[in-house]
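hey m, so remember when u said the tokens were messed up on ur end? i reran from scratch. heres the input so u can diff it against urs
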Amino acid sequence: MTNPQAVKFETPDRGEESARANLYGLLASLFYLPPSQTLLDAIAAAVPGGDGEGVLELAWKELAATCKQARVQQVKDEYESLFISVGKPEVILYGSYYISGFMMEKPLVELRSELARLGLERAETVVEPEDHIASLCEVMRYFITSEDITLASVTAQKSFFAAHLQPWVPEMCQALESHPEARFYAVLAKFARVFFEVESQAFDMA
């Protein structure tokens, strides 16, 4: 995984693929660790592309407005309250749980097998299992930006997305959006849900 705080905001003329890669990278950053004030300020100041009236643009504006009001310690406290626990967290960020009902189960084994086939492996500094939402978003970013034509193809992206993200991410986002203690992360979950819905529709039309 790349540096969680090293998020680039590309201008619209860099193209749709750059924008997609950046959004996957941003989601990876925000779900992996609580954001710094610098990152919150960058999101608040970022101007969306397009006409500003699409569902994704509207969700982005809501996230940007939330980031403008957010403060680091508050977001950090919320992150720890929702996602970190000695027992079962309030909201789980791992695909295996939603697909099979348990952590560290067959979906994770299958994911690790596919990543190994692609020549990808978890960095030594990353302690989270590979089915963490942040890790999966980072893999999608890697696909989009890869110089390998096969990996960067729509077919490869669609296959990975359909197998490892599409089956469970909407449920995770819904759990966050409806959680009574979620504020910043409820808005982030809404943006993520809308983004993944747009991705699903695009892949269906591909």
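this time it looks ok to me. The chain has one domain: 12-205. if urs says something different then somethings off w ur setup not the seq
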